[in-house]
Amino acid sequence: MRAAISALLFLSLSFCILANISPVMKVS
């Protein structure tokens, strides 16, 4: 169960990072 929670946190964190990087990639 703890592994699923940590995996979910990792996915949400990576999603936030991608959401922040994507506009920068489009601009450049």
* Shape annotation: rod-shaped
> Which regions have little confidence, pLDDT < 50, spanning 5+ residues?
none
The helix tally amounts to 1
Average pLDDT taken over every residue: 89
- How many beta-strand runs? 0
How far apart the termini lie comes to 41 Å
Largest sheet data: none
The share of residues in helices is over 70%
Tell me the fraction of residues in β-strands, as a range: under 5%
Class per helix and strand makeup: mainly alpha
Task: Give the C-alpha Rg.
Answer: 12 Å
Q: What is the element string, with H for helices and E for strands? A: H
Keywords: Membrane, Transmembrane
Protein name: Putative transmembrane protein
Summarize the structure.
Keywords: Membrane, Transmembrane. By secondary structure, the protein is mostly helical.
Description:
By secondary structure, this protein is mainly alpha-helical. Helices cover 93% and strands 0% of the residues. The protein is built from one helix and no strands. The longest helix has 26 residues. 0% of the residues are buried.
Question: What is this structure's SSE topology?
Answer:
Elements (H helix, E strand, L loop, with lengths): L1 H26 L1
List the defining traits of the structure above.
28 residues; mainly alpha; 1 helix
